[in-house]
Amino acid sequence: MSDDCLFCKIISGEIQGDVVYQDDDVYAFRDINPQAPTHILIVPKRHIPSMNEAASGDAELLGKLLLAAARIAKDEGVSEDGYRLVINTNRGAGQSVFHIHVHLLGGRQMGWPPG
Ligand code: 5GP
Ligand code: ZN
Fold first, then answer.
1. Which pLDDT band holds residue 2 (cuts at 50, 70, 90)?
2. Is the distance from CB of 41 to CB of 3 less than 8 angstroms?
3. In which band, very low, low, confident or very high, does the pLDDT at 3 lie, cut at 50, 70 and 90?
4. Minimum-distance ligand 1 atom for the alpha carbon of 98
5. Pocket test residue of 29, 31, 101 for ligand 1, highest count of atoms within 8 A of CB
6. Which member of 12, 22, 32, 72 has the greatest number of CB atoms within 10 A?
7. Tell me: the pLDDT tens digits for 47-99?
8. Is 102 among the domain residues?
9. Which of 9, 14, 32 has most ligand 1 atoms within 8 Å of its beta carbon, as the pocket-test mutant?
10. Residue 103 neighbours by CB distance under 10 Å
11. pTM higher than 0.90 for the full model?
12. Which domain holds residue 24?
């Protein structure tokens, strides 16, 4: 838990989030400003600021994020048509909240390359 982290506050319930999934390690909630019909953020309950701070000891936790994302995509009904998982890392890539999160985007056709 980081005291000044928005996503830690959502995980703790201090700030309300529209939760779609959680387990011991992972928390997932709907993005407040959705960029696709399905836009869910999948985060580790443990505070890690970005992929730049992720270490080899976090390998299992990071894998759990991806597997949770795939499960949520299925539950949301977007897995067959397709979905995109995005991890923005640092400002140049558009990261604005410094608690690792996987964006799950689906429900529309995605362009490539991403902007
Ligand atoms: P980033 O830009 O760091 O990759 O993604 C941060 C995401 O968090 C953005 O898509 C933004 O819409 C979302 N976000 C920012 N504040 C809140 C909030 O208070 N609640 C929720 N559910 N999402 C938020
Ligand atoms: Zn945090």
1. confident
2. no
3. confident
4. 3
5. 31
6. 72
7. 999 999 999 999 999 999 999 999 999 999 999 999 999 999 999 999 999 99
8. yes
9. 32
10. 19
11. yes
12. 6-106
CA distance 19 to 29: 4
Check whether 1 has a pLDDT greater than 80.
no
User: Tell me, what's the pLDDT at 66?
Assistant: 98
Number of domains in the chain: 1
Shortest-distance ligand to the CA of residue 11: 2
Catalytic residue (one of 39, 99, 101, 103): 101
- Amino acid type, 111: G
Ligand at minimal distance from the CA of 43 is: 2
Amino acid letter at 109? Q
Q: Note if 101 is an active site residue.
A: yes
In this structure, the residue with its CA closest to atom 21 of ligand 1 is 32
Q: What pLDDT does 10 receive? A: 98
Ligand 1: residue whose CA is nearest its atom 1: 95
Q: Is residue 86 part of a domain?
A: yes
Mean pLDDT score across all residues of the chain: 97
Asked if residue 32 has its Cβ within 6 Å of ligand 1, the reply is yes
113 lies in a domain? no
The 10 Å CB-count burial string (b at 16+, else e) for 23-44 is eeebbbbebeeeebebbbbbbb
Q: Is 112 contained in some domain?
A: no
